[in-house]
Amino acid sequence: MKRSPALDFLRGAAAFAVAVPHYLTTNAPFRPTADAVAVAGVEVFFVLSGFVLAPQIVDWVIGKPWRNLGVFLTRRWMRTIPPYVVALVVVALMTGNLLTADFLRYLFYIENLFGAANRIDFYPVAWSLAVEEWFYLLFAPLLFLVGRLVGRSDRRLDAAFAVIVIVAVAALRFIFAPHDWDLDVRRVTLFRIDSIVWGYLLYLMLEKRPAPSLDTPAGSRRLVALAVLVATATAAEIWVAGLAVGGSVAAQQAFPFSSALFGMAGVGFFRQADEAFRGRLLSAFSFWLGRISYSAYLFHILVVMALKPRIADWPIALQLALYLAIVSGLSTLFWRAFERPILAARPNYVRGRRETVEATPVLQGSLAASALTPASFPERGKGRSWLPPLGLALALIGAATLARNAFMANEPYLFYPALVVTAVIALALAERSGRFAGGAGLAARTLFLFALALPFADAFYRSSTGMPIAGSVAEPTYAYRAARENPAAFAMWWFYYLNEWIRDDGIRKTIEEPDPQKKLPFVLVPGSSGRMFDTTIRINSAGFRGPEIASEKGNRFRVVALGESQTFGPTLRDGEKPWPEQLQGLFAGASCSRPVEVVNAGTEAYTLEDNLERMRRDILPLNPDLILSTHGMNGLLALGLRQQAEPNEPGVRPRASALLGRAILAFERALHELRTRHEAPPAPPPLLSDEALLQTRYAEAYRKLIALTRENRIPLALATSSMAISEGSPREVKDFYGAVFKPIDDIIAANAAHNRLVRLLAAQSGVPLIDAAVGLDGAWDDDLYLDIVHFTDRGNRREAELIFRDLLPILESEGLRCSRP
């Protein structure tokens, strides 16, 4: 079939009819009209796909040699799968789902084969692509086999087979359709494959009926009649879709047929209007729009994720203008550099044993196209020198080695240029690859595009919150319920969280520096600040998180909360506060005989031994009235309460490219899981006796803290520590957190041993005990934890309330009376 500018225009318009509503509805209240436009765009795609594929099926596959069936499938797969895989990998990276089970189901187009199988629908446009792929795989091969069996290849057989498929799928929907119509029916391959068959049937109906010229009365009348049909079908589609979404069973059964009518009316109208699109400028624009339609459909969701959070406060017209410009530019670049060479390399159909026929005009001007013609190959041994290719190959190895070393050493300013140079050399080498120039050229072009796009993708990623960027697709997965009980999703959340600390422009880089005395792992930089997720963390001039501390405390009763990162508080959003600041708020609302000041002396990664050094340096000079010890997780391994070593598995490391580093980590972890899949998990550790507990380094560090506070006549209170899970938590919840924190049973036992140790030491020494673990430890199902130990804002509030409750009698013993707020 001759390429139609009108149908290309319709194809592009349908793609952007999906892309624009997706921008409007992302991170926004539900908009039924916008959603209906996107649904309509997809339905037009289906019918148009069947219509334009029909000539290949009926003319070059049915009744033709077996080879042509393979050519048909190969041509479709070369057209659709490579761009899809690129887009899927990038979306999976951006949303934290690379190499998950959901990713693999997307990769093989089985995420919605019989029903919605994925836990997280992180690439929501993929369902329609799965319908397309299964149509290629089932419809044409089955029709080919039926034609062979009955010895026929005529249009009656083609039409009868199409009608049988439509009736069969409709019967399946009527008999087996589940309750969730949108997720488990409208977007399920088994129930929607007939939507493309309608377009195939439309072609058979119109094949022998050429569209009359628009210059004739008959042509004008037909165009008007089709316009009326399109308007009627559009109204019917919107009405039926609205009823279907509202739960009407009859409308849900009618929706595929109203969608088919709508799509067929649209295709018929634009087919009749093709003559109006033949002008030089309009046809050029239409052909361009058709060429970029697939890339726009695949990649627009990436642009939405990266762009909308940054321009959400712009006027909507400017937002859409920039969005459409970026989608169009990216799609054009991708089509020219990636899609077009692949299309030029597709095999052609055969009439007989020797005669081959091109189904579409050969694309000229590309490396792949020119390299596939035999005349382009120089004769072996003539005019060829091995020295230039050898030099280029050595240069390629050198540039690639430099890029690799810069990547591993976390040197982005050297890595990105080295990667671009590597791609340029690869392009030059591909020109000299002879018969392999087609594949080599495609690989080199892909590498060049990747090298150019990677810095921008990393910039978007590094400036993101670190949580899954597709906020409307996947919520932060730090909780068991939020992650839909999926340990892999939690592991990726932990990657995000940890990356906020270790990346070059992360919080650690801005608020921490090496210890000048070389005794501590690091020290906090006084007067510094940095962004973590969507909040700013500030270190005051004394080197503590929180507001400024007066050098003279005056009449204030100063409480210093000495602890780890749980006390420091890795908050996520502006307005959230760590528990010491929330405790300060509770005292501010209470009526106390003296003002109470709470100092946050928590430091991430510090153990109790490290905080003993900090006590001497920074806390004793503050002349505190009470030290509140809140230690736990950081010392479990270092100070002897853990009984099993950390597993030797791939971990998060800073790399020159955050996205590439994350992809490599995902592969490393997948390989590690593959290698260790048959290893039995470690047995739960034996219970430490009280005598053994009191002989650990942790016990010795606590005794030193007690002695130090008594030596300086400062009251001390010891607090127990809490985690999201405890020994009584369900096994599946333990395994959920155990995807990151390993071995999980040893960690749980060590935390329980730590709390037992704190209670023993408090009883032996007479130091007041704050049992904060009661009401917090093991509360995995109450949205209190970001991970196994760090609190959400709700968790910080709960911790502050528990400590405030137990502090009141301790303060009263020190002569400070407070009433509850």
Q: Number of helix segments?
A: 29
Q: Give the overall shape, derived from the CA principal axes.
A: elongated
Please state the average pLDDT score.
84
Strand order of the largest sheet: 8-7-9-10-11
- Radius of gyration from the CA trace? 33 Å
| Percent of residues in β-strands | under 5%
**What is the strand tally?**
11
Distance between the termini: 79 Å
Major sheet summary line: 5 strands, parallel
Query: Poorly predicted ranges (pLDDT <50, ≥5 residues)?
Result: 360-383, 464-476
Structural class: mainly alpha
> Level of helix content?
55-70%
What does this structure look like?
By secondary structure, the chain is mainly alpha-helical. It is 59% helix and 5% strand. It is built from 29 helices and eleven strands. It has helices at residues 5-25, 32-61, 66-95, 101-107, 126-150, 155-176, 181-186, 189-192, 194-206, 217-245, 249-272, 280-311, 316-344, 367-371, 387-408, 412-430, 437-462, 487-502, 507-511, 565-568, 579-589, 608-619, 635-638, 658-675, 690-693, 697-711, 731-738, 744-765, 793-813, and strands spanning 349-350, 356-357, 512-513, 523-524, 529-532, 535-538, 557-563, 596-602, 626-630, 716-719, 769-770. Mean pLDDT is 84; it is low at 360-383 and 464-476.
